[in-house]
Design goal:
The complex is a heterodimer of chains A (640) and B (99).
Chain A: E1 14-15, H1 23-39, H2 48-71, E2 80-90, E3 93-101, H3 103-126, H4 133-152, H5 156-174, H6 181-212, H7 217-223, H8 229-246, H9 254-258, H10 264-273, H11 277-285, H12 287-290, H13 294-317, H14 321-341, H15 344-374, H16 392-406, H17 412-427, H18 429-454, H19 471-486, H20 495-504, H21 516-539, H22 553-559, H23 564-610, H24 617-639
Parallel strand pairs in A: 1-2
Antiparallel strand pairs in A: 2-3
Chain B: H1 4-23, H2 27-52, H3 56-86
Helix pairs in contact in B: 1-2, 2-3
Classes of the chains: A mainly alpha (640), B mainly alpha (99).
Chain lengths: 640, 99
Amino acid sequence: MLVPMSAAPVVDPTSAHGAFTLLWLVIALPALGAVVLLLGGRRLDKFGHLIGTAMAVLSFVVSLILFITLLGRDSADRSVSQHLWTWFSAGHYKVEISLLYDQLSALFLLLITGVGSLIHVYSIGYMEHDERRRRFFGYLNLFVAAMLTLVLAGDYVGVFLGWEGVGLASYLLIGFWQHKTSAAVAAKKAFIVNRVGDIGLSLGAGLMFVTFGSTAFTVVSANAPHASKAALTAIGLLLLLAACGKSAQFPLQSWLLDAMEGPTPVSALIHAATMVTAGVYLIVRSNFIFTNAPDARTGVVIIGCITLMWGAIIGCAKDDIKKTLAGSTMSQIGYMILASGLGVVGYAFAIFHLLTHGFFKANMFLGAGSVMHGMDDDVDMRHYGALRKAMPITFATFAMGYLAIIGFPGFSGFWSKDKIIETALTENWVVGLCALLGAGITGFYMTRLMLMTYFTNKRWEKDVHPHESPKVMTYPLIALAALSVLGGVLLAGNWIVDWLSPVVGVPHESSPPIPSLAISALAVLVVAVGVATAWLLVGAQEVPRVAPEKVSVFTRAARADLYGDAFNEEILMRPGDRLIRDLDTFDRTAVDGFVNGIATSLTAIANRLRLAQTGYVRTYALSMLGGAAIVVLALLVVNL
Amino acid sequence: MSATPFIVLSAILFSIGSIGVLVRRNAIVMFMCVELMLNASNLALITFSRSSGTLDGQIAAFFVMVVAAAEVVVGLAIIMTIFRTRRSASVDDASLLKY
């Protein structure tokens, strides 16, 4: 049955029973882990990391059971809700704490808990010598629990709860090494920039209360087609602002690169399984808003396009391996946002790319962590080179992630990115060309990273001895590498599109302007050009150990994050600073001056009046007599 | 009988009393002047009572007498105490309570 484009499916879950009553456990387990680890104190230092990892793995097991149960259900009956309690009610507004488990949340649950568990395991090795390891695992569990709340909540207020929880956990983890000023500042920056986006979500939820009387997905999705275009567009744009904050989209992208100050497993968690995917989830979950608000969708597509180029260009010029990967994340999330902005035809592919990206980006971030582990925490790729022999497993697994992200035919990234490019070309050729060009740049910067790290000439310091990481770190890498290679099977027989269609709607059949095989070939060709360029510029030459100073204006701009920070500083921070300083001066001089002036003059008057108290009885007697005389005279005047 | 002479007498007595309070330093004399003022007002009250034919003024005069008696008791006690500590009955000497 074909549902017309304009009708987004209504969220209409059945009440949970059987295995689905376990749903709350998915959140409760990591939340419990966080509470135990953070309140347990030092006596848990020896085995706290094992508790944290166990909680994540158990949560994954429950998610897996739920997913298998969901698979066994009829496709029209795969939306389940579990009502927990009423959070608050004011007048006729009522907010329930309820969980919604459907095809979309199921995939997210598996990604968050699955990749999250692997990152937990990896962190056991990575954080082994950190004396605050127990606390680190507590924060990781908190992060996972918050993200699970975000994707399981049954209304926007619940989403907001998880949304803020993710913001808090990311703040704690980015600033985990708070003794470094740069880390403390980066954490604050991430928190503050995210706050701008959070305003979007809270205003959007408020607008939903006004428009629909409720923020529950069920109510909003049922009434969205009847709401006014203006209200829907406004809600859509506010949700887009929220997504920009959490997903580091233009113009709120600046926090992402600084967030690399956190320990590497945190970067993997933020970039693959949690946090940045929240924006994409929000847009796809709100498909009933966006499908009915084409203007808001246009905004989403534009933001996606800008960010995918922005991130890719930044990635080309960075020498810091983690920052290159961060630029790449920004760019890949841009792809997802772009796809979700295309509407019903794109939602499923946005989620598909999100999943495959979750695999290969977690893989590469953990791989980068493994490299840093062997290189004494050096992140500068100019100090690497020829590491493939020293770290064979890290190299092999990283290569799988690399081939996946550039879209090498057959790897997971190929299928997901190809679908987005094809859909974009079908919908709008400008957007499609943008996506195609982005793929080429991806090929360039990822090849550059690969060559500078694992190939080219050896550039290590003398006292650095690169070595392979312990098994507890390489096994998660191998698992993620396997997922990066095989992630494409989700598309087999169009499975993911069919799976998600009850949530996001069934797209119209439309054929691309040129055959899809030709588009795939074109995409591969563009990527090949990018790879070849990287080979010519980096691989075929001696890589200098110090970044060259005399570079083109474009390189300089990319190194400075395309002046995003400079813009924020000049346009927002400095004038704000000046305004606050002026307000402070005004407060000190004008307001305080007025108040103090009243007090001073009253004191002066009182000092004068005081002198009337002479202490002589006759003075008082005379003034009494005078007063009596005045009263008598006044009476006479009135009476006559 | 006309009320005017009584009122004039009352005014004269009141004026003498008030001037005495203002110009004399001796506390006892000032006290007597206050009594003079009270009795001047009593005379006025009784005069008005007679001329209007009601008893209100006479009742008020009794009140004044009672208050005056009580006041004399308290006032003389204060003057005695001051005299004992300072060996002086001049009110100008008791002028410490001021700015």
